[in-house]
Amino acid sequence: MRRPIIWLDGELVRAGDSLLHSLTPGVLKAQGVFETMRAEEGGIFLWERHWERMARGLKVLHLGWPVSREKIYQNIRRVFRLNDFQDARVRLTVWRESGRLRSSIVCQPLLGVLPQAYRRGFKAAISDVRHKKTAYSHIKSLDYHRLREAYLDAKSKGFDEAILLNSRGRVVEGSRTNVFFVKNRVLYTPPVRCGCLNGITRQTVIQDARRLGIPCLIQEAFVRDVLGADESFLTNSLIGVMPLAYLNTRLIGRGAVTLRLLRAYRQRVRESMGPRGLKSAGRRGKQIKKPSLLDNPA
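User: That's the sequence. What structure does it adopt?
Assistant: Structure tokens below.
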């Protein structure tokens, strides 16, 4: 299999498995932030929000940008086109290592999220790993090892995701998702004060719920609340709105509220991707030739 091309510290390079692994949040142990985004030929979904959240995280950590915003987007486009992807996950990371500001753009195929997954739904397990709220819980920081540990443990047991609780037994978030559930046609999700990340898809779903007239309450919840729900789903930028079919071995399933929000989210994606292509269109719609590995905009 051909090694993917990534952007690392201003250079386009082919990355082997060991390099890709070393750049994974939770493996990369450094002070920094990252964003994981969904990219298609039409563009990056909610790019502006991802950029703004990353900027806030860098400010909290007193870190700067290695290059300008426009250069970052140009490099994302280049990596996407060079790897010849149709649908991909893009991870932008900025961190400080030995006093040096470093950055990477890793673009990989978006695998594993097939149409049947939304019909089947995810299976999640309550993790033994407890979520610890820190001063950086509200940013997408590289302090990710506990979440990664929970996720890998759940995957090893045949689950799709791990749900983490805090020290008081409240539901906080998934290892890489936000948690929603529905009871009596009212939508619930844990508050940010519990320690969860205010995910971009989480924010979008809350906005859609209110626009559609679906009552939405942001409040603390126990496992029993999710287990007793009529519906439940998980969200992040890669899976969008994913029905949660099982929590541990308890069947929850999907319902009308989940489907309405799933359709609303997909409509947003279609409208947002629009004509701004990562492969063929530039910022003003001009055709761009496929760049050389030596063509470095940084």
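The chain has a mean pLDDT of 89.
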